[in-house]
Amino acid sequence: MRINFKETLSSFSSFLYKNQGWIFPIIVLSALISLSTLQISGTSAGIYDYLLGKKPVNLIAGKPRPIRSDEWVVTTPFAVSQYNNGMPTQSKNIGIGQDMSIVADAPYADWSMLFRPHNLIFFLLPIGFAFAFKWWLLSAGLALSVYIFVLFLYPRKYLIASLLGSIMLFSPFIQWWYQSATILPIIYGLLGIVSAVKLIESGCRRTATYWSIALAYLAVCFALVMYPAFQLTIGLVSLVTLLAILRGRGTLHLLWQRRNLFLIFGSIILAGTIMGLFLWQHSDAVKASLNTIYPGNRNISSGGFDVFRLISWPLSYLLLDDNNLMILGNNQSEVSNFLLIGLVLVPFLIYLSIRYKSTFSKLEKSIIYISSGIFIFIAIRMFIPIGDQLFSLLGMSKIPHERLFIGLGLINFLLLLVAVSRRSKKLPKKWWKPLISIQQLIFLAIITIIFSILIYATIRHYNIPNIGPLESVAVILTFSVSSTLLLSSYKQLRIVGLVGVLLLNILSTYMVNPLYRGVGITDNEFSRYIMDAEKKDNFYWVANDSSVLSAIMVASGAEVYGGVNTYPQTDIWRRYFPNSTNVFNRYAHVRFLFDSSPQKRSLSLIQDDSFFVHISPCDEMLHDLNIRYIASERPLKSSCLESNRGRIFDGKKIYIYTIKNNSTNTRE
After folding, report:
1. Spatial contact of 26 and 143, defined as CB atoms under 8 Å apart
2. Phi then psi for 9, rounded to 5 degrees?
3. Residues paired with residue 664 on neighbouring β-strands, in sequence order
4. Does residue 515 sit in helix, strand or coil?
């Protein structure tokens, strides 16, 4: 049977024209399936290749980022370890055992995994495919949740929804912080707003009940992200946005209807019951996390945040060059932000909404004014030393100021949405005339001055030497023109401006994460050696001053002391270091540091999330904990270690020592 390709193509084109709303989802889901099938992800686990002296043959494009250690040192080794060990809830690979339900990115076999759907794929596919699918599922989920939200407020605005979904995905903050803890709160926040409005406005009790169940499910998913610094911020902005939407749509009064109050409280009770069961089941781990010095009991006062950390976002593209790290800060993730063009537009949108009332709906005015209010609220928290009691009541005293950027990013998205989606005039045949209207030229001049101040102040403050005048002018004009177009009275010009915003985001982030085939962390000779050794005995391993070796050993299925402890294993540390609670009572990267003759074993804090364990290879603690093997990147000398000349794994020499039976007591 012959296939008429011309006819088939014509039919497909006709289908897409009639179903334009499916074009963006089809593109996104096709990319998800294709990249997952090829086992390609954006992991920085290729760093293990470099550190082991191995050629990174699986690196397709870009380069792995050492600063993304939350991914390649923490979440990726945990995910691989869980997969290789049958996905237990209580992992025996980390010290005396660690409850993996505390880690949002770790798959584990438990009923609560139903509320972490991003990890369910690990139960269905081999690790390489599952890892890639989970990686891109976060991207697809973020882009499509924005798409759904936009179409909910503005039906049939498919192009605008697609552009805004892409802008959110390619934002510098999202790419530098690319992980479940960053992306999932935004996804569940936006979908939660849609579900809540659908529930409240539904005229059918049965339909409203379904939406209340969906709302409860999303609330539990949101809660189980378990990263309060982002959850509280997104939760606050989402709640205020929900009220703004209800007010703008004229349905706020429906919130107080008996049926809706019953269903909303029903959702809260259902979600609370599920979360209560989870917290009861994992109470020891949850209590240990909450009672830590870091991050559990940290308190941050209002005010004092460096204003240049906030206004430097137009130069986000500089973060792609590692040479700029010592200038802008030594951590791209901490420095990164959204391109906050929507916030720059706030005074102009307010002006336009007052002067041209008919072009702004009540919904758009409500979003502009309430979003501006919540922005001022967050700015007060960051820059003015007042209101600590109120912020503490809201839980914001636990949130570092730079984590509030995620809330500003959501506000920025809402303002961009209003700017581009408001009522439009018909574009005249001489389309260029609106570009040179008096009002547009004034807007362009003012916005150019604003971006000039932002960029030149940042350059001067950080003393950035490698930006010449031409580059500065180009950046200023690109941002200024794109922003000014968003204020046009004509939809077509606004969309051009929105495309400009998307391109600015892409240019700022296109090289943040590499393209890498496979998982990488266990694809090396050292990992295979550990796997073979684990089949022979069940003794514990420890790495000497190496987070890299610890991570590989955990991923390879070895029982390991040290590495990443997501909450303190106090039974160990209190026994051997009773006077060091302030050091070990924290989320921490634990690094053993062996000395042939320390006067006593001790702990020392490296930074808020890591500490050293200073200890002798002869210490009785090692024997008490059943530690038999030490992996080290440098030779160790001790009468308690069997001699070892080292072994070459790929291109890296690693010393693997066996601890002898003799021991001494070097108590703290």
Report:
1. no
2. -65, -40
3. 619
4. strand
Written in H, E and C, the secondary structure of 238-277 is HHHHHHHHHHHCCCHHHHHCHHHHHHHHHHHHHHHHHHHH
SS3 category, 464: coil
Q: Cα separation of 462 and 342, whole Å?
A: 25
Question: What secondary structure does DSSP assign to 108-160, as a single string?
Answer: -SSGGGGG-GGGGGGGTS-HHHHHHHHHHHHHHHHHHHHHHHHHHHSTT-HHH
What pTM value is reported for the model?
0.94
Q: What is the pLDDT of residue 664?
A: 47
Is pLDDT of 663 > 90? no
Q: Are 381 and 387 in contact (CB under 8 A)?
A: yes
**C-alpha span between 278 and 89 (Å, rounded):** 12
- Residue 61 φ/ψ region, left for φ over 0, alpha for ψ in the -120 to 50 degree band, beta for the rest: beta
**DSSP three-state, residue 657:** strand
Q: How far apart are CA 283 and CA 289, in angstroms?
A: 10
**Helix %, strand %, coil % of the chain (to 5):** 60, 10, 30
The rounded distance, in Å, linking the Cα atoms of 296 and 288 is: 9
Q: Do residues 320 and 63 lie in contact, with contact meaning Cβ atoms separated by under 8 Å?
A: no
Q: Which candidate, 483, 153, 502, places its Cα nearest to that of 347?
A: 483
Q: Rounded mean pLDDT of the chain? A: 92
State yes or no: pLDDT of 73 exceeds 70.
yes
Alpha helices (H) along 19-117: 23-37, 47-51, 69, 76-84
Q: Cα(472)–Cα(633) distance, rounded to whole angstroms? A: 45
Q: Is residue 20 scored above 60 in pLDDT? A: yes
Rounded Cα distance between 353 and 393, Å, is 34
Contact present, 295 and 444 (Cβ < 8 Å): no
Residue whose entry in the numeric block shows the structure tokens 């209340």: 212
CA distances from 345 to 77, 114, 173, 474 (A): 43, 41, 20, 20
- Among 509, 441, 554, which Cα is nearest to 48's? 554
Both tokens of 113, joined, read 């995994």
C-alpha–C-alpha distance, residues 289 and 292, integer Å: 6
**Please, are residues 403 and 233 in contact by the beta-carbon 8 Å criterion?**
yes
Inform me whether the pLDDT recorded for 344 exceeds 80. Answer: yes
- For residues 400 and 229, the answer to whether their CB atoms sit within 8 Å is yes
pLDDT confidence of 667, banded at 50, 70, 90?
very low
Q: Which residue has the tokens 């005339």?
A: 433
- Written as one string, the DSSP assignment of 424-460 is -BPPPSSTTGGGGSHHHHHHHHHHHHHHHHHHHHHHH
- Diameter of the chain measured on Cα atoms: 91
β-sheet bridge partners, residue 652? 649
- Best CA proximity match to 50, nearest among 58, 39, 61: 58
